[in-house]
Amino acid sequence: MSARRVALIGFGAIAGDIATALLAAREPGYALGALLRPGSASRARVPEAVAVLSGLDEVAAFAPDLVIEAAGHEAVRDSVPGCLGLGLPVLISSIGALHDEAFFAELVGTARKGGGRLLLASGALGGLDYVRAVRHAKQLALRYESRKPPAAWSAELARLGHDPETLAQPVTLFSGTAREAAALYPQNLNVAAALALAGPGFEATGVDVVCDPAAAGNMHIVTATSEFGTMTLEIANRPSPTNPKSSWIVAQALLAAIDQYFSPVVML
Ligand SMILES: NC(=O)c1ccc[n+]([C@@H]2O[C@H](COP(=O)([O-])OP(=O)(O)OC[C@H]3O[C@@H](n4cnc5c(N)ncnc54)[C@H](O)[C@@H]3O)[C@@H](O)[C@H]2O)c1
Question: At 138, is the pLDDT very low, low, confident or very high (cuts 50, 70, 90)?
Fold first, then answer.
């Protein structure tokens, strides 16, 4: 069996962890490419075993079986439409980019036309299988709370007149819908966007963003109540040692998704 061909968009903390694990995998193993912008500082981090790709034509020539975006919202806009247009499946981690309805519809249209597929990663969150199962419940109430230490929101706290260093009590920075949250904090709320898309959509998913000096890491709390029952989920993620803005688990979640993508046994 020949090696599976995977193209990574970006080569930061998450893609770096993915590449290390995939390059160590055997039988059939992986051939990797990394799509990076010309002049990107990340080019220096790419190991020799990974082909550096500079544009869509080089992605096409690399002929990946799967493309994985771990590069941010701008990269979703820059590169994902082209990859879908080539008929490729693209697993994206920067799901917050999909809060823009028109852009999301364009991606879906391109995927349909070109034969590509947009695959959405669970990323830092769990429980999306349950949320998908109750998405059509008549009495569904879905709420997501992000609870992070002050360091994660220092600029926002300062804007509200709080000193992140001396904050003693939790402060709620935002309370509203997932659509408003994703538009206000596009880089921080990939998880809220994933939940909204698994569940009843951006308008019907409630979001609270809380800054808490006592938070044990980046915490995600999800409650789903419906006529089918109740789910309460609490996750406390450790930051990535390479990029404290990202949770360490995200690369592992993407690796699990890659494994599922190629596996003859799929858990849905
Ligand atoms: N779904 C989730 O739960 C979740 C959690 C954490 C992060 N993320 C997403 O993953 C992204 C990557 O996280 P990270 O910790 O690896 O970030 P990072 O800053 O360590 O790395 C980002 C990489 O992307 C590259 N890049 C940036 N813009 C690009 C573009 N337009 N085209 C190609 N490459 C580009 C950078 O050069 C760098 O190599 C985040 O921006 C975030 O959107 C999702």
Answer: very high
pLDDT 10s digits, 86-123: 999 999 999 999 999 999 999 999 999 999 999 999 99
The arrangement of secondary structure in 128-237, i.e. its CATH architecture, is 2-Layer Sandwich (3.30)
Residue 49 amino acid letter = A
- Ligand 1 centroid to Cα of residue 72, in Å, is 4
User: Which residue's CA is the nearest one to ligand 1's atom 25?
Assistant: 10
Domain ranges of the chain: 4-123+248-262, 128-237
Instruction: Mark whether 99 is an active-site residue.
Output: no
- Number of Cβ atoms within 10 Å of the Cβ of 206: 18
List residues bridging with 230 in a β-sheet. Answer: 225
> Counting Cβ atoms within 10 Å, is residue 217 exposed (0-12), middle (13-18) or buried (19+)?
middle
Class of 4-123+248-262 per CATH? alpha beta
Pocket lining for ligand 1, CB < 6 angstroms: 9-15, 35-37, 40, 42, 70-72, 74-75, 78-79, 93-95, 121, 123-124, 190-191, 194, 240, 243, 246-247, 250
Q: 217-234 pLDDT, tens per residue?
A: 899 999 999 999 999 999
